[in-house]
Amino acid sequence: MTHRSSAFLLALLASSSCLAQQSPPGAKLADTLLLKDFNPKSVLRVPAHEVAKARFPLIDVHNHVNDARSTGQPVPPSRVVEIMDRCNVKKVVILTGKWGDDLQKVVDLMVKPYPDRFLVFTEIDWTRIDEANFGELMAAQIRDAVARGARGLKITKDLGLENKDKSGKLIAVDDPRLDPIWAECGRLGIPVALHVTDPDAFFLPIDKTNERIDELGQFPDWSFFGPQFPSKDVILDAQHRVFARHPKTTFISLHFDNLPERLNDLEPVLDRHPNVVVEFGARHAELGRQPRRARQFFLKYQDRILFGTDFQVNEAMYRNYIRWLETEDEYVDYWESPGQGRWQIYGMGLPDKVLEKVYLRNAERILAQFKGTGGTR
Predict the structure, then answer these.
(1) Residue 209: strand, helix, or coil
(2) Per-residue pLDDT tens for 62-93?
(3) Which CATH class is domain 48-367?
(4) Does the pLDDT of residue 325 top 70, yes or no?
(5) Judging by beta carbons within 10 Å of its beta carbon (0-12, 13-18, 19+), is residue 305 exposed, middle or buried?
(6) Exposure winner among 150, 222, 238, 272, fewest CB in 10 A?
């Protein structure tokens, strides 16, 4: 080999070595990119069916628009109705209406101008838990709320997790002091919308294995992991005992009884308690990632499921829920994705008969049980 060809070969090898050592732009980003900044855009191309309005009129049984806890300027009720009309939403239930004057403000703002479009539920004043005959006092408060226009009772997840009496003891969901409350709702024919516990991940350590670490990192007070809290199953077992003790009271177990990740555990709850129905507000992310199992569940319990959102009234939000229920679209962003977890959802393509029940008929049946303040046991 000549000196010139040898030099050329060495230059070629050196050039190849340099090329091999060079990384494409951004290749090292994986070592420094923060999870909160990771926002991948899917390149999957699958059929998409945007749905403008629900196939049947629907009742949203889980909403908080202009409720008694809202701050700032309310959304003009006429604007809310306009959005509802565009999406075929017949009625919205405002769950958190408080009681007394606070409740009256919601009734005056939303229900009186639009009596066929809005309902409001009342709540319990837990600051009075240590008063004698607490249950009877709250039963009287509920009667007053019904007289003002309330058509149900909402219980928040503070029960079983945060509400305590003066002894410092957590108030259990099945505390006997609450029995007059459940009984009075049954006598009046108004449903009890119960939200106890939260997603399974909220009861697990906030570590690299937690699938909702983004959400818990943003809202660390949503974590209920630790010895200061009862376990999720302990709280749910107490709720299920209440269902059994009050068979004449209708319970709407919100968020799919907070068992959307465990539908096999939810089935026996519904089988044992015919006075219980569920709704899926803010849980279509969990249900939508298991479309075959969820569809099977919806078909089996089509008379026990109500439509709910737990989001502000918004056209895009309703259309996202409707698309999940009505189409078989794949790999769809759930509403406010990836706020709850880094996954996509899949449409269930429910039959019309099931859709009409979930959208409308089941809620109408529950709300039609109302007897008024003169209801009898």
Answers:
(1) coil
(2) 999 999 999 989 999 999 999 999 999 999 99
(3) alpha beta
(4) yes
(5) buried
(6) 272
